[in-house]
Design a protein that fits this description.
Number of helices: 6
Strand order of the largest sheet: 1-2-3-4
Strand content: 5-15%
Number of strands: 4
Distance between the termini: 83 Å
Order of helices and strands: EEEEHHHHHH
Shape: elongated
Protein backbone atom coordinates (compact mmCIF):
# COMPACT_ATOMS: atom_id res chain seq x y z
CA UNK A 1 0.00 0.00 0.00
CA UNK A 2 1.24 3.47 -0.84
CA UNK A 3 -0.20 6.61 0.75
CA UNK A 4 0.22 10.02 -0.90
CA UNK A 5 -0.25 13.38 0.78
CA UNK A 6 0.02 16.91 -0.65
CA UNK A 7 0.84 19.70 1.81
CA UNK A 8 -1.25 22.84 1.61
CA UNK A 9 1.91 25.03 1.60
CA UNK A 10 3.25 24.09 -1.76
CA UNK A 11 2.61 20.58 -3.12
CA UNK A 12 5.44 18.74 -1.44
CA UNK A 13 4.48 15.11 -1.79
CA UNK A 14 5.05 12.53 0.95
CA UNK A 15 4.92 8.81 0.31
CA UNK A 16 4.93 5.90 2.75
CA UNK A 17 4.79 2.22 1.91
CA UNK A 18 3.74 -0.49 4.34
CA UNK A 19 4.80 -4.08 3.83
CA UNK A 20 5.11 -7.42 5.58
CA UNK A 21 8.44 -8.40 7.09
CA UNK A 22 8.10 -12.11 6.48
CA UNK A 23 9.40 -14.39 9.20
CA UNK A 24 11.69 -17.25 8.20
CA UNK A 25 8.96 -19.76 8.99
CA UNK A 26 6.39 -17.94 6.83
CA UNK A 27 5.42 -20.04 3.80
CA UNK A 28 5.09 -16.85 1.75
CA UNK A 29 8.59 -15.52 2.56
CA UNK A 30 9.87 -16.37 -0.91
CA UNK A 31 7.22 -14.15 -2.49
CA UNK A 32 8.80 -11.08 -0.93
CA UNK A 33 7.30 -7.98 0.59
CA UNK A 34 4.59 -7.59 -2.06
CA UNK A 35 2.71 -10.52 -0.54
CA UNK A 36 0.64 -9.33 2.38
CA UNK A 37 -1.88 -12.12 3.01
CA UNK A 38 -0.20 -13.59 6.05
CA UNK A 39 0.24 -12.67 9.71
CA UNK A 40 3.87 -11.52 9.65
CA UNK A 41 4.82 -8.17 11.28
CA UNK A 42 4.17 -4.98 9.31
CA UNK A 43 6.80 -2.31 8.69
CA UNK A 44 6.81 1.06 6.92
CA UNK A 45 9.32 2.96 4.82
CA UNK A 46 9.35 6.17 2.86
CA UNK A 47 9.38 9.89 3.48
CA UNK A 48 7.10 11.60 6.00
CA UNK A 49 7.09 15.41 5.95
CA UNK A 50 10.63 15.47 4.60
CA UNK A 51 12.00 12.85 7.01
CA UNK A 52 12.99 9.35 5.92
CA UNK A 53 11.11 6.68 7.85
CA UNK A 54 11.88 2.97 8.01
CA UNK A 55 10.63 1.10 11.04
CA UNK A 56 8.48 -1.71 12.36
CA UNK A 57 4.91 -0.72 13.24
CA UNK A 58 4.63 -3.45 15.87
CA UNK A 59 1.41 -4.49 14.14
CA UNK A 60 0.10 -7.48 12.24
CA UNK A 61 -3.35 -6.18 11.31
CA UNK A 62 -3.21 -4.67 7.81
CA UNK A 63 -6.28 -2.46 8.18
CA UNK A 64 -5.01 -1.02 11.48
CA UNK A 65 -1.64 -0.28 9.86
CA UNK A 66 -3.36 1.54 7.00
CA UNK A 67 -5.32 3.71 9.43
CA UNK A 68 -2.16 4.54 11.38
CA UNK A 69 -0.25 5.61 8.27
CA UNK A 70 -3.15 7.79 7.10
CA UNK A 71 -3.07 9.54 10.48
CA UNK A 72 0.68 10.07 10.17
CA UNK A 73 0.28 11.59 6.72
CA UNK A 74 -2.44 13.97 7.83
CA UNK A 75 -1.18 15.00 11.27
CA UNK A 76 2.35 13.68 11.62
CA UNK A 77 3.34 10.79 13.86
CA UNK A 78 1.74 10.94 17.30
CA UNK A 79 3.77 9.09 19.88
CA UNK A 80 1.86 7.85 22.91
CA UNK A 81 4.34 6.95 25.63
CA UNK A 82 3.85 4.65 28.59
CA UNK A 83 3.69 7.77 30.78
CA UNK A 84 0.83 9.18 28.70
CA UNK A 85 -1.08 5.90 28.74
CA UNK A 86 -0.54 5.40 32.49
CA UNK A 87 -2.11 8.79 33.24
CA UNK A 88 -5.15 7.96 31.10
CA UNK A 89 -5.39 4.48 32.63
CA UNK A 90 -5.49 5.82 36.19
CA UNK A 91 -8.07 8.44 35.22
CA UNK A 92 -10.20 5.63 33.80
CA UNK A 93 -9.77 3.53 36.97
CA UNK A 94 -10.74 6.51 39.12
CA UNK A 95 -13.91 7.04 37.10
CA UNK A 96 -14.85 3.40 37.76
CA UNK A 97 -15.31 4.22 41.47
CA UNK A 98 -13.10 1.39 42.65
CA UNK A 99 -12.35 0.86 46.31
CA UNK A 100 -9.40 2.83 47.67
CA UNK A 101 -7.44 -0.40 48.14
CA UNK A 102 -7.98 -1.61 44.55
CA UNK A 103 -7.28 1.84 43.09
CA UNK A 104 -4.05 1.92 45.07
CA UNK A 105 -2.97 -1.38 43.50
CA UNK A 106 -3.59 -0.05 39.99
CA UNK A 107 -1.69 3.14 40.80
CA UNK A 108 1.22 1.05 42.08
CA UNK A 109 1.35 -0.86 38.78
CA UNK A 110 1.09 2.35 36.73
CA UNK A 111 3.88 4.01 38.71
CA UNK A 112 6.07 0.93 38.38
CA UNK A 113 5.65 0.95 34.59
CA UNK A 114 6.30 4.70 34.44
CA UNK A 115 9.51 4.31 36.44
CA UNK A 116 10.78 1.38 34.37
CA UNK A 117 9.72 2.34 30.82
CA UNK A 118 7.78 5.59 31.15
CA UNK A 119 9.44 7.48 28.30
CA UNK A 120 9.22 4.54 25.88
CA UNK A 121 6.59 4.80 23.11
CA UNK A 122 3.88 2.21 23.69
CA UNK A 123 4.50 0.58 20.33
CA UNK A 124 8.12 0.00 21.31
CA UNK A 125 7.29 -1.93 24.50
CA UNK A 126 8.29 -5.56 24.02
CA UNK A 127 7.34 -8.77 25.74
CA UNK A 128 10.87 -8.89 27.15
CA UNK A 129 10.40 -5.44 28.74
CA UNK A 130 7.49 -6.86 30.73
CA UNK A 131 9.45 -9.98 31.63
CA UNK A 132 12.29 -7.87 33.01
CA UNK A 133 9.89 -5.89 35.18
CA UNK A 134 8.35 -9.12 36.49
CA UNK A 135 11.79 -10.55 37.25
CA UNK A 136 12.37 -7.65 39.65
CA UNK A 137 9.36 -8.50 41.80
CA UNK A 138 10.11 -9.94 45.23
CA UNK A 139 6.62 -11.31 45.76
CA UNK A 140 4.92 -14.54 46.68
CA UNK A 141 3.79 -16.40 43.53
CA UNK A 142 0.09 -15.75 44.11
CA UNK A 143 0.72 -12.02 44.67
CA UNK A 144 2.89 -11.91 41.54
CA UNK A 145 0.09 -13.52 39.54
CA UNK A 146 -2.37 -10.84 40.63
CA UNK A 147 0.07 -8.03 39.84
CA UNK A 148 0.75 -9.42 36.37
CA UNK A 149 -3.00 -9.57 35.76
CA UNK A 150 -3.19 -5.85 36.53
CA UNK A 151 -0.29 -5.18 34.13
CA UNK A 152 -2.24 -7.11 31.49
CA UNK A 153 -5.30 -4.95 32.16
CA UNK A 154 -3.20 -1.81 31.63
CA UNK A 155 -2.02 -2.97 28.21
CA UNK A 156 -5.48 -4.21 27.28
CA UNK A 157 -6.71 -0.70 28.07
CA UNK A 158 -4.10 0.55 25.56
CA UNK A 159 -5.30 -1.95 22.94
CA UNK A 160 -8.92 -0.92 23.51
CA UNK A 161 -7.85 2.73 23.12
CA UNK A 162 -6.30 1.77 19.73
CA UNK A 163 -2.82 2.82 20.81
CA UNK A 164 -1.58 -0.76 20.45
CA UNK A 165 -2.41 -3.63 18.13
CA UNK A 166 -1.66 -6.35 20.69
CA UNK A 167 -1.16 -6.84 24.41
CA UNK A 168 2.54 -7.65 25.09
CA UNK A 169 1.82 -8.66 28.70
CA UNK A 170 -0.41 -11.53 27.56
CA UNK A 171 2.66 -13.39 26.32
CA UNK A 172 4.37 -13.22 29.72
CA UNK A 173 3.66 -16.40 31.63
CA UNK A 174 2.08 -16.25 35.05
CA UNK A 175 4.40 -17.48 37.82
CA UNK A 176 3.43 -20.92 39.15
CA UNK A 177 1.55 -20.84 42.43
CA UNK A 178 0.43 -23.68 44.64
CA UNK A 179 -2.92 -23.37 46.33
CA UNK A 180 -3.51 -25.35 49.51
CA UNK A 181 -6.75 -27.30 49.10
CA UNK A 182 -9.42 -27.01 51.74
CA UNK A 183 -9.52 -30.41 53.45
CA UNK A 184 -12.75 -31.84 54.89
CA UNK A 185 -13.23 -32.02 58.64
CA UNK A 186 -12.15 -35.23 60.31
CA UNK A 187 -14.66 -37.32 62.29
CA UNK A 188 -13.16 -36.02 65.55
CA UNK A 189 -13.48 -32.40 64.40
CA UNK A 190 -17.08 -32.92 63.30
CA UNK A 191 -17.90 -34.42 66.70
CA UNK A 192 -16.48 -31.33 68.45
CA UNK A 193 -18.42 -28.99 66.14
CA UNK A 194 -21.71 -30.80 66.79
CA UNK A 195 -21.04 -30.85 70.53
CA UNK A 196 -20.35 -27.09 70.53
CA UNK A 197 -23.49 -26.39 68.49
CA UNK A 198 -25.62 -28.41 70.89
CA UNK A 199 -24.03 -26.67 73.87
CA UNK A 200 -24.76 -23.22 72.39
CA UNK A 201 -28.35 -24.25 71.60
CA UNK A 202 -28.93 -25.19 75.24
CA UNK A 203 -27.63 -21.81 76.41
CA UNK A 204 -30.14 -19.92 74.26
Amino acid sequence: MRVYCAWYSGYARAMLTIFRRHLNKCKFAAKGRKHRHCNCPIAVEGKLHGVMVRQSLDMRNWDAAQRLIRDWEIEGEKTVTVNDAAERFIADRESARLSAAMLGKYKHVANELKEAIGSVPLRKVSVDDIRRIKEGWKLAPITAQKRLERVRKFFQFCVDSEWLDRNPAKLVKLPPAKYMPTMPFTDAEMEKILWAAEFIRKLE
